[in-house]
Specification:
There is one protein chain. The chain is an alpha+beta fold. Helix content is 25%, strand content 23%.
Length: 73
């Protein structure tokens, strides 16, 4: 029972001290996206596609993940 009491006391102290800290402002990261639309991308478009099938899978993980699969031509 004594180790449990020590752990609870330590957690209380950590939460109390962290709550008394100075408030920080969120940091906004700015970087160049190498995958953004470029000037010559319009010339790469060839035409329409035909979607043959589409399926959605739910992975059995924590947190749950959805997998979307398209078969196209």
């Amino acid at each position: 029972m004594k180790p449990f009491r020590n752990v609870v006391a330590l957690l209380f102290v950590v939460v109390f001290v962290s709550a008394c800290g100075a408030q920080t402002t969120p940091v906004a990261f700015q970087f160049d996206n190498p995958y953004s639309v470029q000037a010559g991308d319009r010339d790469l478009m060839a035409g329409d596609i035909t979607v043959d099938s589409a399926s959605v899978f739910m992975a059995e993980s924590q947190p749950p993940q959805l997998i979307v699969n398209f078969a196209y031509f």
